[in-house]
Each structure stands twice: as structure tokens, then as C-alpha cells.
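User: quick one, sequence for these C-alpha cells?
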């Protein structure tokens, strides 16, 4: 049973890394689940400090994933219309049947939102839309980094208890 949990946890780690890039999957949450599965094995003693700290990191990163694209829009001069457009575009882009909809959606949402706010200032709308893309990419990079760090932690723990596990 330990080997099955070990393989399942390792699979969660890789799905989490993929999920950090694809917005439909909650990457850090799936990676954290992989850490939890590791502690369900009989060979690895429970460490609630590691699980608590990594859960806190997962919750904060997941929250920031929704905030950072909107903040990027605002930082590049976007209005509330552009921020709402970014959020709506992100949701629509995830479910849209177009390639890279998760990138195109926030960009178009911010652009359209800014055009609704001020239809004559297309330069401002483009700048705000660019900010939404930069915010989205920054958020994706943070999630990817956290998932890779969780994988490193997972491998370190497995390496430490390899004699007991195998």
C-alpha cells in the first residue's frame, strides 16, 4: 500500500506542475495533495508543521492567482472596468474552445472593459490589457515555482526514508 501511495503522490506532483501552467487545474492544491499522500504511508512519520506551512503557502498562492492579473491591469493604468474585464475574460477564456483561451481571455476582457470605460483611448486599453497578461504570467510563474518546490520537498522526504519505504 505504501508503494501505491508513493506513486499516487508522485503523480499528483507532476499533475500539479502541469496544473500550475493550465489554469483549469489547481496546481498547488494537487501538489499539496501529493505531500499529504506521502504522509499517509506507514514509513514516513507525520509532520504537521510541514503540512501546515505548505497548506498555508497553497492557500495564499491560490488566492493570489485570482488577484495578481487584476492588480497587473490596475498597475498599468486600467480602471475598474478593465479589472472586471480581466476577471470575466479569465473565466470565459478557461472554458472557451479556442487555443490559449486562458491567455487571450484576460487580455481581451481587459481591453474590452477599458474600451467600455473610455472608447476613445485605445492606447490606454491596450496598456491595461498588457498589464493583465503580465499579471497572469507572473501568477502562473509563482504557481509553477511553488509546485516545483513541493516536488523537491517530496523527493527530499522520500530520499530520507528510502530505506524504510523500499
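Assistant:
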Amino acid at each position: 500500500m505504501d508503494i501505491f501511495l508513493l506513486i499516487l503522490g508522485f503523480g499528483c506532483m507532476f499533475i500539479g506542475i502541469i496544473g500550475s501552467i493550465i489554469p483549469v487545474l489547481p496546481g498547488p492544491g494537487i501538489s499539496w495533495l501529493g505531500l499529504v499522500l506521502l504522509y499517509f504511508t506507514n514509513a514516513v512519520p507525520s509532520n504537521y508543521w510541514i503540512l501546515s506551512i505548505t497548506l498555508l503557502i497553497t492557500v495564499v498562492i491560490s488566492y493570489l492567482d485570482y488577484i495578481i492579473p487584476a492588480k497587473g491591469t490596475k498597475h498599468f493604468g486600467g480602471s475598474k472596468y478593465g479589472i472586471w474585464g480581466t476577471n470575466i475574460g479569465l473565466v470565459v477564456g478557461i472554458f472557451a474552445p479556442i487555443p490559449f483561451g486562458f491567455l487571450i481571455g484576460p487580455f481581451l476582457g481587459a481591453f474590452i472593459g477599458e474600451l467600455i470605460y473610455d472608447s476613445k483611448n485605445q492606447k490606454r486599453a491596450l496598456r491595461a490589457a498588457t498589464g493583465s497578461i503580465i499579471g497572469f504570467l507572473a501568477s502562473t510563474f509563482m504557481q509553477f515555482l511553488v509546485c516545483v518546490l513541493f516536488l523537491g520537498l517530496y523527493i527530499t522526504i522520500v530520499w530520507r526514508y528510502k530505506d524504510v519505504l523500499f
